[in-house]
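Hey, quick one: can you model this chain's 3D structure?
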Amino acid sequence: MTLLRNSGYWRWSVGAQLNRLPATMAPLAFTVLTTATTGSYRLGGVMMAVFVAAEMVGAVPIGRLLDRVGPARGLVVMLTLVAAGLFALAAVASAGVPDLVLLALAVPPGLVAGGLSGGFRSLLAGTVTEDDLPRAISVDAMILEGVIVGGPLLVALLATSGPAVPVLAMAVVALLAALLVPRRAVTPSPQRTIEHQSIPVAACVPWLMGLFTVGLLLSTIEVGLLPLVQRLGADDSATAIVIVVLCAASIIGSGLYAARGKVGDPRLFLAGFVLGGIVVSVDLGWAGLLGGVALIGVCTGPLMAVSSVNLQKLLPERRRSEGFSLAFTVQASGFGLGSLAIGVLPVWLAPLLGVGAAVVAGALQVRQASKAVKDSLRDSESPKVPLINPQG
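Sure thing. Here's the predicted structure for all 392 residues.
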């Protein structure tokens, strides 16, 4: 497998995971910090909400800026700014300042961090070949599962040394990510300029809808684990079983997709989301809950990979950071809506929102495929104008 021997990919992968690690550390790190300095764990939750909101606001503008200055050079500067913002937050919190000051200090690193994942993703196109891209994204998704689990564990370990230490560690991790930003990338063709190429939003919508579906249904399952297991009459600790099944299924699905190395049909994975979400919604006991969660997990990595690969084909080379930042923002909005759904809807109804999103995404895929076939037939049937030989 050429991907395993690609040192550039592994440098990119380590840098990308380090870039993501602070976001997985932030919820618990902010809670630990505010509980120790202000006595309010709720302030940590509000601070995380402010941080995420700032990320979503800044994602597209920062992605556009990275495209203008160059993703590799821009990421080094932006990650350094994120580290500086987190260092300042930890220092000021330790000095004991009003709550509003802490919330305000969470905004700058959030604004800058929002577009960094898009910048890293844009560099992947210059790190692996087009044939290796589906496999590269799947391997990345498998590693990401470890980062998601490892972030809170790292915070719990570091918090024993002091409440500000986890936030300081987030800053150090951002600096390490800056050191591992790939220096080499594909140089865009000189005739392709950011001013003359726009993102084909309409063509991207089916793939963006797929990413939105992932965020919506996954967050519904993850946030709603407690009421889902309580519905079965189980103890709260049983949520750990469902989490293990979801993570294991996601790793297995990404692994199988990587081994196959093909883009695949997104409608197959969307169908898995539809069936899995319906099974979770209906109370079919432990077999239904674990089976539905496993099916969703198996389809998660492949659906994200196929959406990402096809988005890359549509995005102009000089707009990829912006385009992928938009994609991550859309997916984050799905996560937010799924969390809200659990808070306002009955537990059986919330997963059906994700099912509905998957159906819409599938319908968009069918429509797009039908349009492509019609365009192909029209092109093949159009009359060809014979070339005139000037020599007679």
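One thing worth noting: The longest helix spans residues 7-38.
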